[in-house]
Each structure stands twice: as C-alpha cells, then as structure tokens.
Amino acid sequence: MPDRGLLQDDILLWLRLVRTWNRDMAFGIADLFGLDIGDAAVKAVLLKKASGGYRLIGAAACPIEASPSDADRHRLNTIEAIRRCVASARIETKSAVCAVSGPEVAVRTFEFPDLTAEEMEGAVTLEAAQVCPFDVQNAAVVHQVVVKTHGKTRGVLATATNAVIEARRTLVEEAGLRCALLDVEGLALLNALGLVQAGEDSDRPKAQAVLNVGTTHATLAVASPDGIPFVRDVPVPAETPQMQDLNTPLAAKGMAVDPARADGLRPAMEDVAKTIRFYQAQNPALTLEGVRVCGDLTASRAFMELVKATLPVPATVWNPMQEMDCNSAASGKNLIRDQGPALAVAIGLAMRTV
C-alpha cells in the first residue's frame, strides 16, 4: 500500500511550482477540481470526501479538435475543449488543479548526509542540475524529505521549466479558469493509486506501479513502501497514418484496432519495459507484481495485448472510478465503465482538493 500521507498530504509541497505567479491563492481553497489537459483530449473531475473514500460529483472528457500543422489553432481548440469539458461535467468552480509532464518536467530521488535547511536547498538545486535534462536555472525546483536514518536524508525533488509552468497557467486562464495548484502528472497518478486497498501481507515488501499512456508520452509511476516515488516519462512516437486509429482519444469501449497498427507503439512499450527492469534492479528487496494500465489507449484490445506481451510483469487495465462512490454523481456516470481508465490523472488531481 502506498504511503497515503506522502501521496495525499506532504506531496502538496510539489504544488509550490506555481507559487511564483499565484501568491494570492491559498492551499486551503474549497471546491477545486482536477483538470487534465492532454494533447488530444481534456478531462475534468470533481470529487468530495466521503466516509471511507471519495464521492464523484461530476466528470467529463472532451477530445481536442486536431490541427497538427497549426500551433495557434491547436491552442484555441484546446481552450474550447477545456470550456466544453468543464460545462459537460457541470463544474461551477473556476479553480482547477492541473499537471505538467514530458521532457521539461522531472521527478528524481536524492540521498544526502544530514544537512541544515539552508544547505539542503543548495544541495537539491545542485542535484537537480546534474540529473535533469534541462537547465534548472530556468526552472522551478522543489523537494520533499521522506526518510532520515543513520545520518542520511532521502527524499524526492520535482522540477519543471518556467516555460512549461507559464504555458499551463496561461492556457487555463484563457479558458476562463484559475490554475490554483500545479502538480506533476506522475505524482497525480500515484495519488489516484492511493484509492487501491492494501492486499494481503507478505514476507517481502511490495511496490505498486501505474502506467498512463497518452498520445505523446507514457508515464510510469511506482509507489514503494518507504514512501519514495519513482516517476519516468517515456516518449511515444509521433502520430503516423498507421497510428491514427490508436491516437483517437475517448475511443469506444473494446475498439478493434489492427494489431499491425498497434505495433507502432512497440518501441515505447519496450522503453517502459527497460524502465521497469531498471527499477527492479535498483530495488531488489521489493516485489513488483504487476502494473495497472490507464489512459485513452486502454480501450484498444490490440494495444493491451501489446502491453501484456512486452512488459516484464503482468499488466491489467485499471479503472479508478470503480474504487469510489459514483452513485450520486450529477454528471459523468456514463464515463465510469467506458472512460474510467482515461480519467486516472484527473482523479489524482481532484484528490488534491479534498
């Protein structure tokens, strides 16, 4: 079972990524909702805390009209999709929790000797400069100390470029909303994974993994018993004529796709498999029994067959909607069965608000 305290409370420190341009926003704002803005679709989820879990108030998912050769048109189409999505979910609040991901975002672990608070800030910045694939001088860097033992300090740092942060904020504002909090997509997935109930105890500690596959990248996130999250983004090949069916968001449940077309994602899934093996090699004392797979493409049987054949551990489609009370939802009930796996990131973001 993931450390729920880390994933749902302490991890709010990651949201300081937005503090430089949203100082007037308080973390205690009520009625925030999760807004997952992708390249091909937008998802919105509003939750409320309920006894023993969460209750779905509203949810919706809207595709973004494709405009591959016109960046300005794509931005306008995204803004329109955000507006339609929020309206469809019947969400009245204007304050959203959003996420960033991709090559200009990184989550990495660190291990230092005992340091003062001032020394820790400098050490984290230096570590980020060494391990992140972009210039951290033009990025926001935050960290969380997770474990202190035997004179050593272990934790996690998260960083995102200022350009990515500003672009997300501007996009949300142009849609008539406020980006009250900003998360990292992989950490939002781990937050949603906190819905999963603990399994039977075993002699060997277990890690839990979730894989979200989008149209431009796949995010692998692993929660370990010690509370140290592992997050990696793997690029997905650019859309080709063979991939058009697979990259159509919000596909019908059980969509039939030619296996030859699904095979276009094989290189990305092989990279995910390598990443899983790397994690296992770095954490030999942990058992990783499987991966929960979510995202738009889980609707494709051919894609899931590829995932199951490629990854080194069992893979199953994960619908986090099935682990919460959806009976009183004012909107989005039709999404529970068909689109639940595609809403995992939005659910994790919405859980930050309750």
Explain the overall architecture.
This protein is of the alpha/beta class. The protein has a single domain (4-353), classed as Nucleotidyltransferase, domain 5. The chain is 29% helix and 29% strand. It is built from ten helices and 13 strands. Strands 3-2-1-4-8 form a five-stranded mixed sheet. A five-stranded mixed sheet has the order 11-10-9-12-13, sandwiched between helices. Strands 5-7-6 form a three-stranded antiparallel sheet. Strand 6 (139-149) and strand 7 (152-161) form a beta hairpin. Helix 5 (185-193) packs across helix 10 (344-350). The relative contact order is 0.19.
Main features:
13 strands, 10 helices, disordered N terminus, five-stranded mixed sheet, alpha/beta, 354 residues
Question: What does this entry show, briefly?
Answer:
By secondary structure, this protein is an alpha/beta fold.
CATH C-level class is Alpha Beta
Radius of gyration: 19 Å
Structure annotation, total helices: 10
- Could you tell me the CATH topology label: Nucleotidyltransferase, domain 5
β-strand percent reads 25-35%
Low-confidence stretches: 1-28, 240-256
Based on Cα principal axes, name the global outline: globular
What CATH architecture do you see? 2-Layer Sandwich
Major sheet: 5 strands, mixed
Please count the beta strands (DSSP E, at least 2 residues each).
13
Order of helices and strands: HEEEHEEHEEHEHEEEHHEHEHH
Task: Note the topology.
Layout: H1 4-8, E1 33-37, E2 41-50, E3 53-63, H2 71-88, E4 95-100, E5 105-113, H3 117-131, E6 139-149, E7 152-161, H4 162-174, E8 178-184, H5 185-193, E9 206-213, E10 217-223, E11 230-235, H6 259-262, H7 266-282, E12 287-294, H8 301-310, E13 315-317, H9 335-338, H10 344-350
Parallel strand pairs: 1-4, 4-8, 9-12, 12-13
Antiparallel strand pairs: 1-2, 2-3, 5-7, 6-7, 9-10, 10-11
Helix pairs in contact: 5-10
